[in-house]
Amino acid sequence: MGSLAADAHYPDAADRSLVLTHPTAAEKEQTWRLNHGEWGGPLDLPMYLKREPFLASTSLAANGGMVHWILTDAPPTQPVSQHEKRRVLASCEHICKRVLYVPRNGDEVREGFGYGIGSVYTYPEFRGRKYAARMLRELGEVLKTWPEEEQLRKKRSQGDEPDSRGQSNGQTKAEGREAVCSALWSDIGKRFYASKGWPAFASGHVEFPSSSPESPLGTPSLLERSVQPHGTSLTLVPVNTSNLAQLCAEDEAQLRVELIRHAREHQRIAFAFAPDYDVFRWHWAREEFIASQVFPGRQASEVRGMIATVVNTNGAAKEEKTRVWAIWTRNFGAGAASSPAKNTLYILRLVIDDRGTTTPHDPKTLQLAFDAILHSALDGARAWHCDSVHLWNPTPALQGLIAGSGAAHKFVDREVDSIPSMMWYGPDGTKEEEADDVDWIANEKYCWC
C-alpha cells in the first residue's frame, strides 16, 4: 500500500490513468482498518472488522445489493489477486434500494432503483488531492447505467467472485431495472457534494430529550391526560419482525396515493424511497450487532416500534378508528454504556394511517395516538441509555401534534451532518429533469445508509 513517504509520484486527480473499480478482499479490509476511527463508534477494531462483512450479508446488501468501489491508479488490465493491495486513493460503497416516483401531472406510480452511497473515504496520505471528487464524479455517471454495465462485466468472465482486477461479476439486484437517482448523507456540510451533482434536501429534525420529566405511564393515564370521552379505548402493539412486513405493505399503499396527489397538486416530480422490509431489517441488524458489544449479555430489544390504535364508540353509528405507528432503531456512540449523550433512538418512519378515511381524523384521538407513540419511544430510549429521540423532517401535520404533545423538544436544522443529498437521473437516465424538479416525500431516517 502506498504512502506519502514511500511514493515518489502522486497522479493528478484529472489523470486519465485513474480507474474506478472494485476492491479486492484485502483492499476492503485495509479500508475498514483506516476508516474505523471515523465510523467505528463504540466498536473496537476487531469487532468493526466483523461488523462490516456482517452488514454486507443482510438481505438488503447481499447478492449484489451492496457494491464497494475504489479509485486507483493501477492499470485495469493488471492482474490482482484477492490478497494483494493496489494504491487505493479513495473508496466508497453503494446499496441498491427500490424507489417510487410520479412524474409531474402523473397518475401512475413508477418503480425504479436508487443507490444509497456511503462510507466515502480518502486515505489520510492522499487527502487534499481531490481524489474523492474524481471518484464521485465517475461513480455518479456509472450508476446511471449500473445494472447494464454489470451485465457486460458478467459476460466477460464467469463466477460470482471478483475477477483478477477486483471487479464484481455477480448478478445485481438492480439488474434489468432502471436507476433513477443516487443519494448520500453528507457529514461535511452541504456544499461539497452539491458541487459534485448531489444537491442538499431538507435536513431538519425534532429532538426529544429522554431525560425530561416522565409522563404518567400506562394507557389509562394517557386517556385521562387527553380528556377523552367515555367509550374511547387505546391499544398499543409493539412493532417487531412478526408484523413489520404488513406495516411496510400498508405504508407503501398509502405512500403511493400521496405521491400521486403531491405530483398533481404541485406540478412537480414526487419521489420516495420505498419503505421495504429489508431496509428496516438492515437498520435493526446494525443496532443488534452494536448493542451486543456495548451491552454484552443483554438480550436485544424485541420492541422496534409501536402501533397505537384509538377506537371511539361514543354515540357513533359505527366505531371511529385512528391508527399511528412508528418504527425505530437505536444508535450507540463511543462509551455508549456510560455516556447516554452519545446514544440516540431514531424514529426511522412515522405513519398516520389515512387508508379508508374520507374525513379528517378527530384531533383529540389523533393527538392521543401520537402521544402514545412518543412516550413509547421515550421509554425505549431510556431503557437503552439513549439521551434523546430524533424524528427527521416531520410533516406540518406531525409538527402540530408535536406542539400539542406538551413534550419537551427542539427543532434542529442540520448544517453539517447527515445532510440528505440526491443526484436525479430521471427515467432511462435521460437527465431531462434535475434534482431541483423533485420533491422528496418521506425524507426520513429509514432512507439513510
Automatic annotation (TrEMBL):
It comes from the Eukaryota. Residues 150-164 have a biased composition (Basic and acidic residues). Residues 150-175 are annotated as: Disordered. This is LYC1 C-terminal domain-containing protein. It comes from Xylaria multiplex. Coiled coil: none annotated. It holds the Pfam family GNAT_LYC1-like. Residues 229-449 form the LYC1 C-terminal domain.
